[in-house]
Amino acid sequence: MQDKLKDIFKNSPKKTAAYVHVPFCARTCAYCKFYKTAPSFQNLELYLQCLEKEASRFFNSAKGAEISSIFIGGGTPSILSENQLSRLAKIFEHQAGKVEWTIEASPSTINPQKLKVLKSLGINRISLGVQSFSERTLKNLGRPHKAEASQKAIEQSLEVFDNVNIDLIFGAQNQTREDWHSDLEKAASFPLSHISAYCLEFESATSCCAGNEKPFETQIKEADFLYLAMDFLAQKNFKHYEISNYAKHGKECAHNLNTWNMNSWIGFGPSAASQFGGFRFRNTSDLNSWAKGVMENSPAREDIVKLDDDELFNSAVIFGLRKMEGVNLESLKSRFKNADFSRYEEPIKFLVSTGLLEKSGDFLRLSRKGIPLADSVAVELI
Ligand code: SF4
């Protein structure tokens, strides 16, 4: 299958999002499943050298590809020094100012000077991994920063960026409804443009919360916390546009919408996933193996799937249902003409009859009752 990827950049789509995985964390959080490694000087140097090479190979080969958004995630991208961040950003400097360009940052790794450098490089959106404003919850999550550091990081970020997101997590051990309400209140007290509220153990692409493997009481508690976030943030003028995401008017995350809409994205760095040129694949999740592949012009890729209309239609429905507006089935049918639509008729009829899905014109979407049960809905449609 690796051979088949040889020419993918020649089948470049007109537009593609770009994701850069920065696989370094100072310490490991208990619940985390992302690939990360130690930020030693040698590792960072190897990473940057290979990233430059991987990206230049892409830009030289996929000549027609226009980047529609850039997302630098991790790991902890903000662990890089100002000089290292400048090297990374240089890869995309020709896009600066043209597209949404996000960087994820950990509250304890930023300062006013670093924020100004990020902005001067063309980055126009920052996403802070706050997780909670409660010391107890942060401790339970194994997060290295203090609540006070988050508050300071938010204030400093708002001085530099117009577009600031914070990530919150609910469902931590011993977290009460009052704790969660107080996290939401604190978040809404800042002029943020976006809030992501993830359920703990949010791992799979289809997962929202209330995964079937969890005890029933946990599922009920998590659904209650999700409804609390939906109702509270709606009162604060945040639009709930995706299961875990809330935005002020016009501030929806373009990069993530690109994924939920099943468009193209190209990933750089170890473990970064791509959907590009008719394939879905992932760079190997090991810094040294990835670097070796890049240096030898023989990229180490895994989980390679050749995409056809059936696969894309299915993914577009499953991911698209994460959006609160749902999916326009008629437009997906004309986009993926060769998909077997007939196999969805019965499951959709059943899910509508249970009240988990609802139809409105050509749109199919999760009902309020169905939102916490998105996983179970997805299982019926896979
Ligand atoms: S900082 Fe983020 S990426 Fe790193 S271990 Fe913690 S949750 Fe995972």
Q: Could you describe the 3D structure shown?
A:
By secondary structure, the chain is of the alpha/beta class. It folds into 2 domains: 2-259, tm_1862 like domain (pyruvate-formate lyase- activating enzyme, Alpha-Beta Horseshoe); 309-381, Arc Repressor Mutant, subunit A (Orthogonal Bundle), CATH 1.10.10.920. The protein is 39% helix and 21% strand. The protein contains 13 helices and 15 strands. A 9-stranded mixed beta sheet has the order 7-8-6-5-4-3-2-1-9, with helices on both faces. Strand 2 (66-74), helix 2 and strand 3 form a beta-alpha-beta unit. Helix 10 (309-320) runs antiparallel to helix 11. The longest helix has 21 residues, at 41-61. Bound molecules: iron/sulfur cluster. Residues 10-239 form the Radical SAM core domain. Keywords: 4Fe-4S, Chaperone, Cytoplasm, Heme, Iron, Iron-sulfur, Metal-binding, S-adenosyl-L-methionine. Its main location: cytoplasm. Probably acts as a heme chaperone, transferring heme to an unknown acceptor. Binds one molecule of heme per monomer, possibly covalently. Binds 1 [4Fe-4S] cluster. The cluster is coordinated with 3 cysteines and an exchangeable S-adenosyl-L-methionine. It is found in: Cytoplasm.
